[in-house]
Specification:
DNA binding; sigma factor; DUF6596; sigma factor activity; RNA polymerase subunit sigma-24; mainly alpha; globular
Length: 410
Amino acid sequence: MSAVDVREAITQAHTREWARVVAALTRRFGDLDIAEEAAAEAFATAVERWPADGVPPNPGAWLTTTASRKAIDRIRREDKRDDKQKEAQMLYDDEPPEPLGAIEDERLRLIFICCHPALAMETRVALTLRMVGGLTVPEIARAFLVQETAMGQRITRAKAKIKAARIPYRVPSAEDLPGRVSGVLSVLFLVFNEGYLATGPDTDPVRPDLTGEAIRLTRLIRALMPQDGEVAGLLALMLLTEARRAARVSASGELVALAEQDRGAWDAALVAEGHRLVRERLATKVAPGRYQILAAINAVHTSARDVRDTDWSQVVALYDQLVRLDRSPIVALNRAVAVAELDGPQVALSAVDRLEGTLAGYHAYHATRADLLRRLGRGQQARAAYDKAIELAGNTAETAYLKRRRDQLG
């Protein structure tokens, strides 16, 4: 096996096994900090040894075993644990495992730790991206637009708080799940978004490992709570978005806007499943929540054979419904994009300009303004807006798209 093949095997192992290794170590040792550091050391050891020894037949088992040994070595070095009996139990693992509870999946149990309500929402997302998604601290810092040292401190404090509060490594009981699941859905949605449009300039523009894991975990929650409309809505939203992945980035690495995508390249099976979930929720006649409305908007887009067939009046009506539930300026911005197709770019621009105070640091705000100004023939202002969007955008494919649109202005 060549050195390139070994590097690729290590990359794939990190994508597939990071969350499993961290989850397994968290369950065994009861400490997120030990689990993360030992997992990182195991992957570093793989980088050193696999080129010489070869890739093991079961990389996940090799990594978990190596990480466990690293964790044991750290515990021994610390020499701070008075309860030697407990340490021996961790070292030899003779006791039968605790019942898994409502969700028999280590990674989902790990998410419920990272998403504990004792933590602030931004901290939950950051911790989940690190522990479950395997993103580096610099990648997460870029996603949050904060300094790397500040993000590292935030994650460290979160792990310390979980340890000090003795938050258990388990999923809430079935009767407690509804009260906890909304926070988990919010985090999964943000993890999916990081994969759908990665924010780091040094990462792939799309992270299918993150989108795939978010979908997998949402499916597990859906199986547990089949009657929950927002779980179904989030799953539908993810599926309808993921269905377009193959058409979203060109061969040259440039983002392809929805209007320009080859709809024949969309995943028909995912589209059909997403549409089915949306129809099922509509049939219940229960007032939809945020994720269900977002899924319905995506269903309208993916139902059109051509962008010219899009029912924009329905899209705007759905956004009107969403605005009543979520007064986020980003929702208002997305609504304005739909309004431009229905009522024209001038009406939409007036709505977008009212958002400047809250979205001045958001690249999509400037990209939207640039497109509307371009359509209105105001080239100089459009160029300035594109320049600002390019300055703020972190995704490489999106930056390439914005530069091309700007340069087309002449």
